Amino acid sequence: MLFSKSINKYYIKFFYLFLMGVVALIVVDLAQLEVPVIIGQLVDELDAFRKGTLSEPEMMDALQSIILTLAGIAALIVSGRFIWRFGIMGASRRVTFELREDMFNHALKLSNRFYSERKVGGLMAHFTNDIRAIRRAVGPGMIMMVDATFLGALVFMRMFMLDARLTLILIIPFILVTTTGLTIGNKMRKRFRESQQAFEDLSDVTQESLSGITVIKAFVKENLEIKHFLKRNEIARIKNVRFARMAMLMRVIVRTIVSLVFVLIIAFGAELVTSTQGSADPFTIGDLVAFLSYFGMLVWPMMAISEIINVRSRGRASLERIERILNEPVDIYDDNPVEVEKLDGNITFNHLNFQYPDGSDYVLKDITFEINQGEMVGILGRTGSGKTSIVDLLLRLYNLGENELKLDGYDIMNLPIRQVRESIGYVPQDGFLFSDTIKNNIALGIDKESESYGRIEDMAKLSDVHDNIVEFKEGYDTVIGERGVTLSGGQKQRLSIARALAKEPPILILDDSVSAVDTSTEEKILKNLRTIREGKTTILIAHRISTIKNADKIIVIDEGEVLDIGTHEALYERCKFYADLVERQRLEDEEEAA
């Protein structure tokens, strides 16, 4: 059983289930305590019948009474075991369900900084192996703990009542088992933590290799990846074997001690039966059978001590790993936000300076410009100039200084994060798609009850992907692979555009989102955007001049600074950087045409 601020609340929430299970478990233990006594009585009755001191009718009456009593106890034990399994094991499942849900909810709140430092495969290990270890510590761990304490104490008392001398023999194994457990327990926790880390590393390698399978095949690196995987797999095997050896050592020590004590009880017990015959208070064969039966019941609590140490060591190590996620601070959060009915799409950058939390240099320096509602604005710059950083800030993925970025005159830091993001339609560079139907991917940002849900095909037509969709066998119900692997790069981008358009946001951001389509398709999409986005703000981030040539204004950025702002014609005349880009791309287009 585990105790921690991260898990104690679940014990309180499901206290009624744990209580029901513990009570049922105690009732079963009490019922089991009567079985050795009854068996001992049966042996003594049979011995008396053999000696002739008990008549056959008396023997049959006694036998019938014993059988009925055992049947009643058996029924009680069966019912009790069902109840404690339902209570304790059911509660452990609920605890891990809610813990996993809390982990996922917290993970969704964590900033990009966290995910830049952690790999997906490793995080998945926390949601699978670590949760499983905690469930075993909470469920079976509690059962073993109750049995080891309650049943062990009661059995010890019953044995003491039968014969104190034989019972004293048991003090030695209990001391040995406890000492061994305390000594080995810490080492087991350390080794299990190492084995879980090895599994996390193995998950990282597996996830990364499978996600990049196309690249691996293209570069014919299958054998290299196999060697890399085998190396990590071997490390995981070694770590798990080291832990298994420690756990097995604990079991062997306990079993050896139990076996030795069993032999001692038989030897001393036989001597007591012989030496006390004819005395006022003899130790009968039935007493010895009952004592051995009690010792047999005591074996489980003694074995449970090693199992408790085992599962608790695993659970403690896994809980520590999970708590590192749960204790990870949420960097981006609402702090007494201003309630605004809606956002129209006016954007103001006011001498904004920004550097990433893990960076040392500013990626944006003194950024100042305005975008008015209804404008189509292009942002142009070379790779690494800071274009995507501007998008990250508009999506409120990072914190900013006071009044450095405003939406409709409100400091973005004072607006509800949810409202800011709901007011923005975003098409990322990679056009990330989920392994779901095309229809559900397009409808990601809208409710099924909304009018927009019925316009999914219209949005697909506006992004010039409808004709491709209807060519699929299942049409809009086609399930695309992970990250849309079954689609071409251009189809992914156009589906992402349709998804953003279906949201009908006041602000639409396309981050280099038509780079994978041909020029004619690009022109068609941009023309449709200008028509349907009238009165709404549209931001086109690109490195290709043709994408932003007809924008209302173009913002030229280089090395994190705004070089100039104006129309295509004005910038071509006065901005040397922009003119050079235009000429360079014109020459590239001519070479391709030739």
Structure description:
With 594 residues, the protein is an alpha/beta fold. The chain contains 21 helices and 10 strands. A 6-stranded mixed β-sheet has the order 6-7-8-3-9-10, sandwiched between helices. Strands 2-1-4-5 form a 4-stranded antiparallel β-sheet, covered by helices on one side. Strand 7, helix 18 (519-532) and strand 8 (537-542) form a beta-alpha-beta unit. The longest helix is centred in the N-terminal third of the chain and has 54 residues, at 56-109. The termini are far apart.
Sum this structure up briefly:
With 594 residues, the protein is an alpha/beta fold. It contains 21 helices and ten strands. The strands form two sheets. It has a six-stranded mixed beta sheet, with helices on both faces.
What order do the helices and strands come in, and which of them pair?
Layout (H helix, E strand, L loop, with lengths): L7 H6 L1 H37 L4 H54 L2 H6 L2 H19 L1 H23 L1 H5 L2 H41 L1 H6 L3 H54 L9 H42 L20 E8 L9 E8 L4 E6 L5 H8 L10 E3 L2 E2 L5 H6 L1 E4 L10 H5 L13 H7 L3 H6 L17 H14 L4 E5 L7 H14 L4 E6 L2 H4 L4 E6 L2 E6 L1 H7 L1 H18 L1
Parallel strand pairs: 3-8, 3-9, 6-7, 7-8
Antiparallel strand pairs: 1-2, 1-4, 4-5, 9-10
Helix content range: 55-70%
Our count of helices gives: 21
Structural class: alpha/beta
Major sheet: arrangement of strands: 6-7-8-3-9-10
Major sheet attributes = 6 strands, mixed
Query: Average pLDDT value?
Result: 83
Can you tell me the residue ranges where pLDDT is under 50 for at least 5 consecutive residues?
none
Task: State which percent range the strand residues make up.
Answer: 5-15%
> Whole-Å distance between the termini?
74 Å
Number of E strands: 10
Question: What is the global morphology?
Answer: elongated
Radius of gyration: 36 Å
